[in-house]
Amino acid sequence: MTNFSGFFYQRFTGNYKRKGGGLAEVSNKARHFHRICCWSLLLVGALLMAQGGYMQAKAHFAQFLIQQAWQKTLQERRPHKPWSWADTHPVAKMDFLPADIRDYDSEHARLNGDSLYVLAGASGRNLAFGPAQMLSSANINSRGNTVIAGHRDTHFARLNSIKLGQLIRLQSATGKSLVYKVIMAEVVHESDMSVTEDSGESVLTLVTCYPFGAEFAGGEQRFVVQAVPIN
């Protein structure tokens, strides 16, 4: 009986130890898996941050090249591509001015941020390099609704702080500039196409995704700014 009890005890404790070792092994694997997940998340976050920085750098460097093409366009009175493989060209230069500025026709007027150079055709590729005009909208500084789109996290991020009454100067490829005054800034659903409709009146419409600072791309909302010419 004693031998049987001792045998049973040994078998029992042996099994228990093996089970305990199994639990420890599972625990070690869980900790290892947890560490892998943490490092993976950190790596993904770093890659996303790097990608965001790359997109910002690309957007700003592209504007420099587009600026050079714009200067040639004004000088030679014909379109110039910003780079050889581009399927677009700059059609306008846009400056955001303070509402209280007086000499807004001056080329050296104080600006709210750097100048933006607008490309022809609001395709996904073009929007990566700068704001772009919808080709179906009215020509720059002409009668009708001129619609310009831009990304909320790069070139049109400044729309987040725009106010009613702010002035926007828009220069066309002819060299002529018009100054517009902001009369509306609101959020609409992406299905609301009324903001892009042409009523025959001269209107400048700026469109970007909303909300600003969102970590996801796209969305159903759009932030729309409309301005009318004052000169």
What level of helicity do the residues show? Answer: 25-40%
Percentage of residues in DSSP E strands = 15-25%
- Poorly predicted residue ranges: 4-19, 44-52
Q: Give the SSE order as H and E letters.
A: HEEHEEEEEE
* Class computed from helices, strands and strand pairing: alpha+beta
State Rg.
Answer: 30 Å
At a glance:
This protein has helices spanning 2-76, 124-127, and strands at 90-97, 116-120, 132-133, 145-149, 167-172, 177-189, 203-210, 221-229. It has 231 residues and is α+β, with helices and mostly antiparallel strands.
Q: If you had to describe this structure to a student in words, what would you say it looks like?
A:
The protein has 231 residues and is α+β, with helices and mostly antiparallel strands. The protein has helices spanning 2-76, 124-127; strands at 90-97, 116-120, 132-133, 145-149, 167-172, 177-189, 203-210, 221-229. Strands 1-2-3-4-7-8-6-5 form an 8-stranded mixed β-barrel. A hairpin with a 4-residue loop joins strand 5 and strand 6. The relative contact order is 0.11. The model is unreliable at 4-19 and 44-52 (pLDDT under 50).
